[in-house]
Amino acid sequence: MRRTYVGRDIEVSFDLDLCIHIGVCVTGLPEVFELHRRPWVLPDASDAEAVADVVRRCPSGALRYRRVDGGPEEPPESPTTVTPLRDGPLRMSGALEVTRTDGGVDVTPRATLCRCGLSANKPFCDNSHLAGHFRAPGARLRIPASPVRRSTDQPIAKSDDPRG
Ligand code: SF4
Ligand code: FES
Questions:
Q1: Which fold has domain 2-67?
Q2: Does residue 155 have a cis peptide bond before it, meaning omega lies within 30 degrees of 0?
Q3: Taking the model in full, what pTM does it have?
Q4: Long-range contacts, stretch 92-99, CB < 8 angstroms, 24+ apart
Q5: Domain residues of the chain, as ranges?
Q6: What are the pLDDT digits (tens) for 72-126?
Q7: Measuring from each residue's beta carbon to the nearest atom of ligand 1, which residues come in under 6 Å?
Q8: Who lines ligand 2 at CB under 6 A?
Q9: Which atom of ligand 2 is nearest to the CA of 115?
């Protein structure tokens, strides 16, 4: 379920079901994105452009933003790109319309889609490729050590994620 955090200049929304625990948010702007604080997102704790920049780097589309100060919205990347990530999902960016299994359509500029076949949230990746030891060639995604990653190959479980 997507939740929205409203700030003075920018609104940030988050969907834990889409998050693949890369940690760009909590390492990129810790004053805005703090795992154990409530609310965990404080959009006004930094400059709106800096918040937008971190959100655009969230590969899964779990984070999105809407400017309320008249600043630029996220332009969908053109052309649409599909990048297989090493041992993991397909990273997509562009003007995407992803159909969920319940028929709902997710309109998003970014998404990570399952290619191991093990996700319980298809077509989205839910990190099941890690437990399944999925191996496939692809681009390397730099994953920083962060509060959502005990080690590169061991994110916290969604059931343990305090943002749930
Ligand atoms: S996918 Fe990464 S950057 Fe996006 S919300 Fe999850 S932890 Fe943060
Ligand atoms: S690629 Fe991540 S769950 Fe399948």
A1: Alpha-Beta Plaits (3.30.70)
A2: no
A3: 0.95
A4: 96/61, 98/123, 98/124, 99/123
A5: 2-67
A6: 999 988 999 999 999 999 999 999 999 999 999 999 999 999 999 999 999 999 9
A7: 19-25, 58, 60, 62-63, 148
A8: 88-89, 114-116, 118-119, 125-129
A9: 1
